Amino acid sequence: MTVAELRPTGTASADLPVIAARGVTKTFGDGRVVALEGADFDVRPGEFISLVGPSGCGKSTLLRIVAGLLGSSAGSLSVHGEKVTGPRHDVAMMFQKPTLLAWRTAIENVLLPTEIAGRVTDKDRRRAMDLLELTGLKDFAFSFPSQLSGGMQQRVALARLLQTGADILLLDEPFGALDEFTREHLNVELMRIVGEVGATTLFVTHNIGEAIFLADRVFVMTPRPGRLAKIVDVPFARPRSPELQLTPDFNQ
Ligand code: ADP
Ligand code: MG
Q1: Phi then psi for 94, rounded to 5 degrees?
Q2: Where does the record place the ABC transporter domain (predicted)?
């Protein structure tokens, strides 16, 4: 399988924003808790956006709204030009806590989204193995989560995320529970992997250095109420090989 075949199967087009938020607001408790206030932004195809801000500023809330797991209280949010009304096949989210099934091997965990969607074919199995190779876990495909380190488990979770074929990846502090060394290593790997598959990525972190290191642009949120205060272009954009850039014939 080539890198092109591992690319997401979504409907990205080079000029439309992949995600468009207009005044997205979320309150809880009959309006008493403002978790997110008036978020306005566009995300372009293939961009890597870091979303940074202190604990409780609404980062997870924003991601869950983009994922369609949570409805907004006001404003509008669209993905690929369509209003988000619930979970979508082209958006996949990954959380900080490991969510692998303990009784399944790594590859069986990666194949889970395919199983949920329908019957698993040999092609799906090959893709799962290729994704485990991409995340550096080919030799551990038949290991159980308990036999893997925390970092390796999150690599499996990343392979599973890519197995969905979603072209929008929402990563909510995916390596936040890992030690600093492992986290930095995985961040570099993540940059390489999303660059190779050409996914559009929203990456949440409370670490500003990490945010700047990874991203094309950084969205900065203020503590309270959850406000998107600033959008910063990272001057030293990640190097990407030109043939891996997202193009309008992305799906061919
Ligand atoms: P972050 O991910 O930046 O740490 P969150 O999005 O989790 O922040 O939370 C933003 C704010 O919304 C916090 O004050 C949090 O307590 C509140 N909040 C989040 N989810 C709920 C909920 N289901 N019910 C009530 N309050 C919530
Ligand atoms: Mg959070």
Answers
A1: -125, 140
A2: 19-248
Per the CB < 8 A criterion, the answer to whether 106 and 137 are in contact is yes
The predicted-structure confidence for 126-142, as pLDDT tens digits, reads as follows 999 999 999 999 999 99
Q: Is 134 left (phi over 0), alpha (psi -120 to 50) or beta?
A: alpha
Nearest-CA residue for atom 18 of ligand 1: 35
Cα–Cα distance, 97 to 83 (Å, whole number): 29
What is the number of the ligand closest to the CA of 30? 1
Confidence (pTM)? 0.88
Best substitution site from 24, 32, 33 to test ligand 1's pocket, by max atoms within 8 Å of Cβ? 33
| Ligand lying closest to the C-alpha of residue 221 | 1
Nearest residue (CA) to ligand 1, atom 5: 58
Nearest C-alpha neighbor of 79 from the set 68, 69, 70: 68
- Rounded to 5 degrees, what are φ and ψ at 201? -130, 135
